[in-house]
Task: inverse folding
């Protein structure tokens, strides 16, 4: 059974423990839905500032996503200093991309990056994501692109990452993979699920021949249609159910 949310380690603020539990759940869900890449890629979550420093949680480098737990996540500041007691390393490429986005976007609580086959395949296509599915229509209005510059380990790439992302929710890293941002972990995961599904559908549709594209008049009305769908964002409606699935199939993330 899942531990109660208030069974946090002694001395840890409730908001940090809740964020740790949700972030660990997100790692497990990415693994469960086939979007992980062994020990590569990262998901980070913002925590309240500490002594004027921006801090966030990220995974220890060397663990499969299905192994991540709330207590194993590492707390780091915007300069890459580790603030959690740990002997585990933090991947440099993860730090560059994630810390850059957190610093540039105060509205972002979570950054999720993947290296899936479908995402990588679409990122290598000159036209990128096409309006060939309902899922794609949800993405296209808030999608940005960033050209590939090699492994993201150089500080000089930060400015271009910030400029290219802008205020987008969905970010396609050319010849690389997918990235989503959201105010919460739940939002970032829901967006990535939709983004990944849109890429999978596109690759499948392209294998079948000529494509039927959704028209611009439909695309322009997507935001209004989404507002009529529900009183709450779909991410917040789905998140409790997704965690229940984890409790059945991949428990232990909240330890």
Result:
């Amino acid at each position: 059974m899942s531990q109660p949310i208030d069974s946090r380690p002694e001395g840890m603020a409730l908001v940090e423990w809740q964020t740790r539990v949700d972030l660990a759940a997100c790692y497990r869900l990415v693994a469960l839905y086939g979007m992980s890449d062994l020990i590569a890629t990262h998901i980070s979550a913002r925590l309240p500032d500490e002594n004027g420093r921006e801090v966030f949680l990220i995974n220890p480098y060397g663990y499969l996503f299905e192994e991540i737990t709330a207590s194993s996540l590492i707390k780091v500041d915007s300069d890459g200093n580790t603030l959690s007691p740990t002997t585990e390393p933090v991947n440099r490429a993860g730090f560059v991309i994630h810390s850059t986005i957190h610093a540039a976007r105060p509205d972002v609580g979570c950054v999720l990056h993947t290296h899936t086959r479908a995402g990588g395949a679409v990122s290598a296509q000159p036209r990128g994501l096409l309006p060939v599915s309902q899922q794609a229509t949800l993405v296209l209005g808030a999608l940005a692109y960033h050209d590939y510059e090699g492994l993201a380990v150089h500080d000089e790439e930060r400015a271009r990452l910030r400029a290219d992302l802008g205020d987008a929710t969905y970010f396609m890293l050319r010849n690389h993979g997918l990235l989503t941002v959201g105010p919460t972990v739940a939002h970032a995961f829901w967006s990535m699920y939709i983004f990944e599904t849109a890429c999978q559908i596109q690759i499948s549709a392209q294998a079948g021949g000529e494509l039927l594209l959704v028209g611009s008049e439909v695309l322009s009305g997507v935001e209004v249609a989404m507002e009529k769908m529900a009183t709450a964002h779909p991410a917040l409606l789905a998140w409790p159910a997704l965690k229940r699935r984890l409790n059945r199939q991949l428990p232990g993330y909240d330890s």
Observations:
- The CA atoms of residues 96 and 153 lie 6 Å apart.
- The chain has nine helices and seven strands.
- The beta strands are 43-50, 53-58, 74-77, 110-114, 143-146, 170-173, 177-182.
